[in-house]
Write a structure and sequence with these properties.
The complex is a heterodimer of chains A (about 220) and B (about 350).
Chain A lengths: L1 H7 L3 H9 L24 E3 L14 H5 L5 E7 L11 E9 L8 H5 L5 E3 L14 E2 L1 H4 L19 H5 L4 H4 L36 H5 L5
Antiparallel strand pairs in A: 1-4, 2-3, 3-5
Chain B lengths: L1 H35 L15 H11 L10 H18 L9 E3 L2 E3 L9 H22 L3 H32 L4 H7 L16 H14 L11 H4 L10 H25 L11 H29 L5 H32 L5
Antiparallel strand pairs in B: 1-2
The chains are: A alpha+beta (about 220), B mainly alpha (about 350).
């Protein structure tokens, strides 16, 4: 009777499609339902502040130098002696990113020595004018309490809470890229004030012992 | 005079009925195809997206109809008109319900009751090929020309198969009139079942496959598939002109389904019960139910089968369908001859 089964072979495809009717749909109904982004999602950039409110950006222009799309424009200026804006000698006086040219590669995040620029989970940035696509420090700099800024008002499409979810980038790859630094709090966190616990799980072996002893490798 | 009034009313009703059906059909197709593909179809325009077709129609009306520079203008405009006209004309001979008797006059629920209706249908579907040919040629551009030449060849070859598939039906029923064929399928078994022509199974299969090819539906939609040839013969059409092609295609789908039901599944036959007014409405309901089932089958096939390559398509039509139809005609003729005259050696 296998010839009968062979004859029915081409019609098995019909059964497959009919079975799909009974399964739940895979479509996610945006904007009512939004997907939780992966932790290291390359969204929109923010310029971070330290826990005491000073800006982290020291105007070194490394991000502009490494950007493959040449979309960052930075001009540094000296910090006023009595009212320092940033934690170094200079600060980012002009800081603009052309979001329409940005390729969201996060090389600026890798290049930044102070973790001033990081990427959040925001991606809803549609503008109606090319001029509005150039984000200046107004839009990029976080609020003194660590809240990311957003040029457009909060609406069904823009979820400010999503911006508060910090990225794990700097914590996942320590400055030396070495697993031995796992468990050692290196930097203050991004897009948030206060300290976050160190991220674990990079190496299966050194889960907690080194962190407790504070031992590091050279 | 009353003949003209009656004809006028029937034409108007058929026209409105077809347009409303096509509106519904486009939505049903999009929703059902998306269900079969495990996704949500249109669901923004109105509840469950039922206003989507209306929105598409409005958009088509307001869109600019761009005419290519190299287009042959008169034929370019004529093509969608011919397409829509033949699509509407094909439906005129299909009875959607049992004849109603009011005050002694018998009203048949078809716009025209020709006694050569089968021939009329085949003739009109042949003229529909002109629309495709004109559209592609008059667009004045390479890809529409290629698409329309292939589409014309496809439609012509499968029309031969379709015509041959209908010959056993005509022999079996003894008449070419569609209403006659439907009448010959009515009976009393289980209260409504008669000799449905589905017993002519090879004819049914060949007719259905040829119907898919006639309407340029999957799996025979190479000539208008976006992934293959942008749009085939309707690439250079925009706005209302494209909407005419689009609607004509769906009217054709509905007409072929209605024809399948009429010729093979007993047309408007079905259990009839209840008071007089219900008894007149029920055949229409049975006809619509059966036709929509075949339409859903069309959509199911579209979602399930991959597209046939053009040479596979033409080979299938000429080398498989036509010989099968011819062989079946001979068999049916022999069977009917035996039934009529007895075995030759008796």
């Amino acid at each position: 009777m296998s010839w009968f089964a062979d004859l029915l072979g081409p019609f098995r495809g019909f059964a497959v499609t009919m079975r799909q009717v009974t399964k739940p749909r895979v479509t996610r109904k945006y904007p009512e339902e939004k997907r939780i982004k992966p932790e290291r999602f390359h969204g929109r950039h923010v310029l971070n502040r330290d826990v005491d409110g000073t800006e982290k950006c020291i105007g070194c222009e490394l991000c502009a130098g490494v950007c493959p799309a040449a979309c960052i424009y930075v001009r540094g200026a000296d910090n006023p002696k009595d009212d320092p804006v940033s934690t170094g000698e200079r600060y980012g006086f002009v800081y603009e990113i052309n979001m329409l040219r940005c390729i969201y590669c996060a090389m600026c995040v890798e290049a930044c020595p102070t973790e001033a620029i990081t990427m959040t989970h925001l991606f809803e940035m549609s503008v109606t004018d090319r001029e509005d696509g150039i984000y200046t420090k107004n839009e990029l700099l976080v609020e003194p309490d660590g809240t990311p800024n957003h040029p457009q008002p909060e609406s069904a499409l823009i979820n400010i809470e999503e911006l508060r979810l910090g990225d794990g980038w700097m914590r996942a790859t320590s400055p030396s890229g070495r697993v031995d630094y796992e468990g050692v709090v290196q930097w203050s966190p991004s897009a948030r004030t206060g300290e976050l616990p160190a991220e674990l799980g990079q190496s299966v072996l050194n889960l907690s012992s080194r962190a407790e002893q504070g031992e590091t490798d050279g | 005079m009353s003949v003209f009034i009656e004809a006028g009313i029937k034409v108007l009703v058929a026209f409105v009925f077809l347009l409303v059906t096509v509106l519904l059909l486009v939505w049903v197709e999009r929703k059902f195809v998306s269900d079969l593909q495990n996704r949500v179809g249109p669901d923004r325009a109105g509840p469950w997206g039922i206003l989507q077709t209306l929105a598409d129609g409005l958009k088509a009306m307001f869109k600019e109809s761009i005419t290519p520079t190299n287009a042959e203008f008169a034929l370019y405009i004529a093509a969608p008109v011919v397409s829509m006209t033949t699509a509407l004309l094909m439906f005129l001979v299909i009875p959607i319900g049992a004849p109603i008797e009011i005050n002694g006059t018998l009203y048949t629920l078809q716009v025209m009751d020709l006694n050569i209706a089968i021939l009329y249908i085949l003739a009109v579907s042949s003229v529909a090929v002109y629309a495709i040919t004109l559209a592609g040629w008059a667009s004045g551009s390479k890809y529409p020309l290629l698409g329309s030449v292939r589409a014309s060849a496809q439609m012509i070859s499968y029309e031969a198969a379709m015509g041959l598939a209908l010959v056993p039906v005509v022999m079996f029923a003894g008449t070419m009139s569609v209403s006659g064929i439907v009448e010959s399928q009515q009976g009393d078994f289980l209260g409504f079942l008669g000799p449905w022509n589905i017993v002519l199974l090879p004819s049914f299969v060949v007719f259905l496959i040829a119907g898919f090819a006639e309407t340029n539906r999957a799996p025979f939609d190479l000539v208008e598939a976006e992934q293959e040839i942008v749009g085939g013969f309707h690439t250079e059409y925009s706005g209302m002109r494209f909407a005419l092609f689009f609607l004509a295609e769906y009217i054709n789908v509905f007409t072929i389904s209605a024809l399948t039901v009429t010729l093979f599944f007993g047309g408007w036959g079905g259990p009839v019960f209840g008071p007089w007014i219900i008894q007149q409405v029920l055949p229409v309901f049975w006809f619509l139910a059966k036709t929509w089932l075949i339409v859903l089958f069309f959509v199911w096939v579209r979602a399930s089968l991959p597209r046939m390559r053009y040479d596979q398509l033409m080979g299938f039509g000429w080398k498989k369908l036509i010989p099968v139809s011819l062989a079946w005609i001979i068999l049916v003729a022999i069977a009917l001859g035996v039934r009529e005259f007895g075995v030759p050696w008796a």
